[in-house]
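It would be a great kindness if you could assist me with a short task in structural biology. I am sending you one protein, given as its amino acid sequence and as whole-number tokens for its backbone shapes. I would ask you to consider whether the tokens describe a fold that such a sequence might reasonably adopt. The full record is reproduced below for your convenience.
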Amino acid sequence: MVFGSGDRDSLRQITDQLSKITTELAAVRQQVADQQHTIDQIRQDTTAAINTGLAEVRAVARDALARTNETATGPLAHIGNELVAVRGAISQLEGQLRTVTRPVEAPAPDPASASVENTPLAPAEAERRQPAPSQSPAAIEEPPDLIVLRAAAGISAANLQAHRDTWAFLVKHASSDPHFHIPGDVKDAADIVNVRISGPSIVAALIRLDQVGRTDLSPVTRAIAGHLYGRLAGAVQEIIDNPDHRIEAEPVKITIDDRARPAGDEQ
């Protein structure tokens, strides 16, 4: 079969049409690629904007929480310190009142009443007239161990851990001493107080607890004061027996939390 000129024209037209279709397809592919690039760029910009916004929101929220904690914690700590100071002032006033109201020594009996005074008393009356053991002059004048006090004075700072009621008792009876300093930072968690006290404060606490433990009229108060004195003096005695003069030595730790040994736990 022989192709004529008409066939050649048809083939040329078909070739031209295929070339145009190929060019148009290439243009469509380029448009699709450009649109995909634009979509990817929009997605990246949107993600970056969202992340930036979330970061700013988180920063604002953290700042608000920090300000809220600072606003709430500051006044509470200040109120707690003021309460401790008020308790100390009340304790000091109580000590002054006890000093003012101390009984005056009775005058020497005159000879006319000597016969009456020498009359034997009934057992109940004789027991009633006996002076209270806690008010005996020997007990009042007996000072604490000076070696323990001097060792306590050498402590730069000690970490004291106790129940907040125990700490309140200690502050109440020791704050009347001018050398006892109430610390500004008192950490209270689950009714347990963690506080750092100085050596002079320990000396003042030992002296006051010793006096209260021997002279107070309440047996409960004497028992608590005597126990706290023993724990503080015991911690100081450990320093006397095993001194540690290293520069990087751990601070003294005093924990008032007695408990029984678990059953079956051998020492």
